[in-house]
Design a protein that fits this description.
Elements lengths: L1 E7 L2 E6 L9 E10 L2 H7 L10 E2 L3 E9 L11 E4 L2 E2 L5 H4 L10 E2 L2 E2 L4 E2 L6 E5 L3 E3 L6 H4 L2 H13 L7 E5 L3 H12 L4 E5 L3 H9 L4 E3 L3 H11 L5 E6 L4 H10 E9 L11 H6 L3 E4 L7 H10 L8 E5 L4 H9 L7 E4 L5
Parallel strand pairs: 13-14, 13-16, 14-15, 16-17, 17-18, 19-20
Antiparallel strand pairs: 1-2, 1-4, 3-5, 3-11, 3-20, 5-6, 6-12, 7-8, 9-10
The protein binds zinc ion (2 copies).
């Protein structure tokens, strides 16, 4: 089969690889679409250490079932499906609680990190265990389905915020996850959703997908704007989708007394904490990692139109065009959101 292989760091090539073997509990998926994730781009140059070559990356995928293992009962050949990026064990204490994102034996599709190597979906075929596979309604295209992982991440961030409805939410930065988190907060019943970024073109996208206010500022200006919009109070919940000093501090400063700050972004391994604000305003800082069972809800919300993903797809391209797109994403070319590769199309 044809696959986009990371043969060495920063070098992708279309290679001919053997078909993956299908174990009894596995499903062989013929990949129709697979999104390039930020984590793939960080893995590509070796900076994250989680894509040790040789590896086929790609975990945001959808396609059709090409074959099933002998013990698979819920799926059959030809089904349109997507799958979770996380392979959980189903047996540890966290899996027992449904916290599959915290599984002690968690593996991610398309990752090689020293402990394991699991080839991903920038390939004509990928093999995944049945328990992470979800059927897709016909109303969701494969390219849209490639956005499901990101939507699930956004839904999880909003879920751990434990909203009860009617809140004012602020999302910090209108990147991919921010724009989806904004929509997820709306879907969860927030009455007003604001989003802040320093890039005006991203904020135009945010308006398209339903932001009540877009705040083109940061730092003290942002805090002042948020205070103005909330009668001096601050936002009930702030969802931080970057993970740098400046944005984490901004998130904390924009939260109301007793409010919640959900930390989704984690670009920087460490940030400085404005401790006295957190303590004296009694804020709750809540981390959010990946997703844990949000796929069915994500599928529903895309199908119903409550979450729009189409405006966030920058390009749909063939596997052969993959290396070039990785370069463009890696060089941080402006105005790129999701790039979806279509291994099955050529
Ligand atoms: Zn991803
Ligand atoms: Zn587990």
């Amino acid at each position: 089969m044809k696959a986009l292989l990371l043969a060495e760091y920063s070098h992708l090539e279309v290679a001919d690889l053997p078909m993956p073997e299908v174990a009894p509990g596995d499903v062989l998926v013929q990949v129709a679409a697979c999104g390039i994730c930020g984590s793939d781009v960080h893995g590509y140059d070796g900076s994250s250490g989680r894509r040790i070559p040789p590896i086929v990356m790609g975990h945001e995928a959808a396609g059709t079932v090409a074959a099933i293992g002998s013990s698979v009962e819920g799926l059959s050949e030809g089904d349109r499906v997507t799958f979770d990026s996380t392979v959980y064990c189903g047996a540890c204490e966290f899996c027992a609680l449904g916290q599959i994102n915290l599984c002690n034996n968690r593996q991610v599709i398309g990752v090689s990190c020293g402990d394991y190597r699991r080839h991903g979906a920038f390939a004509e075929y990928v093999v995944v265990p049945e328990r992470i596979v979800y059927r897709l309604p016909d109303s969701i295209s494969f390219a849209e389905a490639a956005m499901l992982e990101a939507v699930s991440v956004a839904l999880h961030a909003v879920r751990v915020a434990q909203l009860s409805g009617g809140e004012t939410a602020l999302v910090i930065r209108a990147g991919m996850i921010g724009l989806l988190t904004l929509q997820a907060a709306r879907a969860a019943g927030c009455s007003r959703v604001f989003i802040a970024d320093i890039d005006a073109s991203r904020l135009r996208l945010a308006t398209m997908v339903g932001a009540d206010a877009t705040l083109h500022c940061s730092g003290a200006d942002l805090v002042a704007e948020v205070k103005k919009l909330t009668g001096g109070r601050g936002a009930d919940v702030v969802l931080e989708a970057v993970g740098r000093n400046e944005t984490v501090t901004g998130a904390i400063e924009c939260a109301r007394k007793g409010g919640t700050v959900v930390l989704v972004g984690n670009i920087a391994p460490e940030v400085t904490l404005p401790l006295q604000i957190v303590v004296t305003r009694q804020l709750r800082l809540q981390g959010s990692c990946a997703s844990a069972g949000e796929y069915p809800q994500a599928i529903e919300l895309i199908a119903s139109g409550a979450i729009q993903v189409k405006p966030l797809i920058t390009a749909v391209a063939s596997l052969e065009e993959g290396p070039r797109w990785f370069e463009r994403l890696h060089s941080r070319e402006p105005n790129l959101m999701k790039v979806v590769l279509t291994p099955g199309a050529v």
